[in-house]
Amino acid sequence: MKKSFLVASIALLSTSLAFSAHARNLKLAHAMPLDHPVHKSMTWFADEITDRTKLRVRVYPNATLGSEEASLQMLQNGTLAFTKVGGGLVSSFSEQYNVLSLPFLYKDEDDSKRILRSEIGQGILESSENDGFIGLAFLASGSRGFYSNTKIQTPDDLKGLKIRVQNSPIDIDTMKSLGASPVPISSTEVYSALQQGVVDGAENNIPTYFANRHYEVARYYSEDHHSMIPDILAVSTEVWNRLSVEDQATIKQISVEVLDVQDKYWDEYVAQSRADIITAGGEIVEADVQAFQDRVQPVYQKFVQNNPQLANLLESMQNY
């Protein structure tokens, strides 16, 4: 009897120790390369948690553990603690994030930070708790512009052009409202699609345009700033609920501090990318932003019609 009790006690202790070790060692995955601002800021985030708690966070870059979609799924089942994902992708996992994909939602990048880092943004981040993950921070990822082998400075320049977009209803509606023909294809196929004429242009932020060498097949980058979709630093709800209140508070504080770190690295990255694009033979052109804004109102009307439950959130963001 005593022997059985001893064996059971040892087994229970071993299980407890294994769980404790698992709880202390956490994984953070993202899909960006080592020289990307996201990797630098996520490494800082992980190091700060390691230094200021008894937790240990290991960073897995370059989609080592899978795509952004796979990472979100791992957050939902608790096999991954943290990840960085694009806001457009998160919208397919949790409802309130959909509003972030609307075109010209902010006056400029400073305005986007002001709104997203307010109680409104915090509400969006927390809204996904029951979907298996909690947003910790909105990370700056710049604004998106069109690029093609012809200059796109007004919506009329888009008329009839086949433009690659993400497979998102809002992105597709936005292109249609601007007179373009949207072509949803994978991001990994954009270069060859431009090269072979499958599409006439695409849209993204300046660093992505440069990093993917799209300037080689689409010389002109237009700064129309039609979209400012942030990246999201998220934590698994299951993992979060296993942490102590003290560790949760520390991680929340670090999540606030990492915003300035990401901003610094991102601004440097954009400046360097702009210079490198010019050196490589690309050209950055100004666009008539107001003309683009005037064309996208039907997108908002359709969004509210299809998502009446998000109308108040959208209104609060527009009036903040």
TrEMBL record:
Gene Ontology MF, one: carbohydrate binding
- Tell me yes or no: is Transport among this UniProt entry's keywords: no
Name a GO CC annotation attached to this entry: outer membrane-bounded periplasmic space
Identify the stretch annotated as signal peptide in this record. Answer: 1-23
* GO annotation terms (biological process): transmembrane transport
Checking CDD domains in the record gives: PBP2_TRAP_SBP_like_3
Does this UniProt record's set of keywords contain Iron?
A: no
Q: Which domain of life is it from?
A: Bacteria
Q: Give the matching InterPro entries.
A: DctP_fam, TRAP_DctP, TRAP_DctP_sf
One short Pfam name that applies is: DctP
What keywords are assigned to this protein? Answer: Signal
Which PANTHER family would you find in this protein's record? DICARBOXYLATE-BINDING PERIPLASMIC PROTEIN, PTHR33376
Q: What is this protein called?
A: C4-dicarboxylate ABC transporter substrate-binding protein
Protein species of origin: Vibrio inusitatus NBRC 102082
The taxonomy runs:
Bacteria, Pseudomonadati, Pseudomonadota, Gammaproteobacteria, Vibrionales
